[in-house]
Design a protein that fits this description.
By secondary structure, the protein is an alpha/beta fold. It has one domain. The protein is built from 10 helices and 7 strands. The strands form 2 sheets. Strands 5-4-3-7 form a 4-stranded mixed sheet. Strand 3 and strand 4 form a beta hairpin. The longest helix has 26 residues. The chain is globular. It starts with a strand and ends in a 5-residue tail after the last strand. The chain binds zinc ion. Zinc ion binds next to helix 1.
Length: 255
Amino acid sequence: MKFHTLCPNCAIETPNNVTLGSIIFNDSGVYEFQCNNNHVSNIILQEEQFQVLFEIGIDSLATEHPIEAIVAFAASLERYYEYSIKVMTSEKCIDLAESKASWQAMGKFSERRLGAFIFTFLLTLNCTPKTLRNKLIELRNEIVHNGKIPTAQEALEYGQGVLEVIVHNYKISTERLNNAISKLRFENFEVSKEKTNKDAYCTLHSSIGSAITRVMESKDNVKPTLNEFVESAKEKINRYSKLAVPFKQTDKKIK
Ligand SMILES: [Zn+2]
C-alpha cells in the first residue's frame, strides 16, 4: 500500500530527468526517504491516520484482497472514533493526557470505544452520530472471530458503510469544531516535525487527496462511491507499477 512522490532535490537539479518513487504507508505519518541519486528528504502527510487506513482499504479492494480491505476499513473507523474523541475533548479544554488516559482505561474493546464516541458526540454536538449498520458489524465479527472469508462485494458494502459513517459525522464536527480540529492538526504537525531528519534536503507537507476528504467536499447529488475510488485505484496501481521505483525508507517511531 503506497503513495507516490518525486524527489524534490532531483526536481530542482535535473528537472528533465526526475524519477517517480513509491513510498509505503507507515504508522507515524512521517516519511524519510532516499531517491536513486541518494538525496534524502522528508514528507509529513497531512491526512489523519484514519484517512490513510481507509486508503489502504481501497488499495486492498483494488488488488482483490477483501479480508485485508475489511480489516483496514474497520481499523479506519476505530481510529476515527479515537481521533474524534480527541477533537471533542480538546473543544472542552480537557488536557490531552487526561483524554488519552481515559481512552486507554477502556481497554481494546470496540463496544466500549463506540459507546464513549456516541455519548461524547451527543454531549458535544447535541445530536446522535451515525453508526455502522448491525449487518456490517456482524460481518466484521464473523471474519475476525470465526474466520469467515468475505466476497469482494461484501468488502465493498462494508467499506461504503464505513465511508458514510465517517463522512456524516466528520462533516458535522468540521463545521462546528473547526478551532479544535485546527489546534489538534497544528499540535500533530509540531510532533511530526520533531521526527524528521534535520539533515534532509527538505520536508514536504503533502496530501494524498484522500477519498474521505473528496467525499466530504462533494455535493450530495454527486458524491463519489467507494466503487469509483476502487476503479480509479486499479488504474493508478497499474499505471504506477510501470513508472515508479521504490524509494528507500527509514522507519519512524509511532505517534
Ligand atoms: Zn533525488
